[in-house]
UniProtKB/TrEMBL annotation:
Xref: SUPFAM superfamilies: Protein kinase-like (PK-like)
Species of the source: Bacillus songklensis
Entry-linked Pfam families: APH
Protein name in UniProt: Phosphotransferase
Coiled coil: none
InterPro entries: Aminoglycoside_PTrfase (IPR002575), CcrZ_PhaseVar_Mediator (IPR052077), Kinase-like_dom_sf (IPR011009)
Residues of the Aminoglycoside phosphotransferase domain: 14-221
């Protein structure tokens, strides 16, 4: 990265799963750099959903480096997730024609429930397949599959964990880390957020802020996708051999099925 910015810049890894992100600092100038970000980033920046994109550079080896403003701020805490700002930004994302058009131009197709379920079952570890709670989970997903039909498919972030929400010093809210974005049922994002952070008695109130009514159909779809996401987490932590997380998600799934 030094040969892009110059030796006077202080560049440090930003962490993350891919190891392709960096912080860069020179005097009072600060940038967030990433290698091979999706072209989707430009639209997210234009819509004010992620920190402003400053420049994009294509390297001789074909890599594309993007630079965004490195903002001073903080990640949201779990107790912040019931705010009007969160509901408003997620609603803006789900209703954005510009974001949807861009993902379509990038070749993304809507993720249908049956397709998701088949992907989830693929390559399941034999030890997991034998677990009664996993069997019950899949039985539920297949049984309810005919009832899981969305009226519209939108751009979904698919990981609306509080750690991915950034509140800047000037009180501007952003949703970052878009590597897993897809066109899907908005219930994917809504279910994960509501089940994780909002007491059930407040679901209707929060959805009013978002601009949606809490219907029986939406509840059914949210539960279906959350169970799918829990099974995916169990699959992931088995692969990572993280026993404590594995047990946590198995116990969590037990509460659903």
């Amino acid at each position: 990265m030094e040969h892009i910015l110059g030796s006077e810049w202080e560049i440090t890894p930003a962490g993350g799963a891919t190891g392709e992100a960096y912080f860069a600092k020179f005097k009072d100038r600060k940038l967030f750099l990433k290698r091979n970000s999706s072209p989707f980033l430009a639209v997210l920046s234009a819509e004010g959903i992620v920190p402003k994109l400053v420049w994009t550079k294509r390297m001789e080896n074909g890599d594309v480096i993007t630079a965004q403003h490195w903002l001073t701020g903080r990640e949201l805490k779990a107790e912040d997730m019931d705010s009007k700002k969160v509901a408003a930004l997620l609603s803006k994302i789900h209703h954005s024609k510009e974001l949807l058009d861009m993902l379509k131009r990038l070749g993304k197709m809507p993720l249908l429930p049956k397709e998701l379920l088949e992907q989830l079952e693929a390559d399941m570890h034999p030890d997991l397949k034998r677990l009664p709670v996993i069997q019950k989970g899949f039985d539920y997903l297949w049984r309810e599959l005919p009832n899981i039909q969305a009226e519209k498919y939108v751009v979904c972030h698919c990981d609306v964990n509080h750690n991915n929400w950034l509140l800047s010093e000037d009180n501007q809210l952003y949703l970052i880390d878009w590597d897993g974005a897809m066109i899907a049922d908005p219930a994917i994002d809504l279910g994960l957020l509501l089940y994780s952070y909002i007491p059930r008695k407040n679901w209707g109130e929060w959805l009013n802020l978002y601009g949606e009514k809490l219907t029986e159909d939406l509840e059914k779809r949210m539960k279906w996708y959350v169970i799918g996401q829990i099974i995916f987490s169990i699959k992931w932590y088995k692969y990572k051999n993280e026993e404590a997380e594995l047990k946590y998600w198995q116990d969590y799934l037990n509460g659903f099925v």
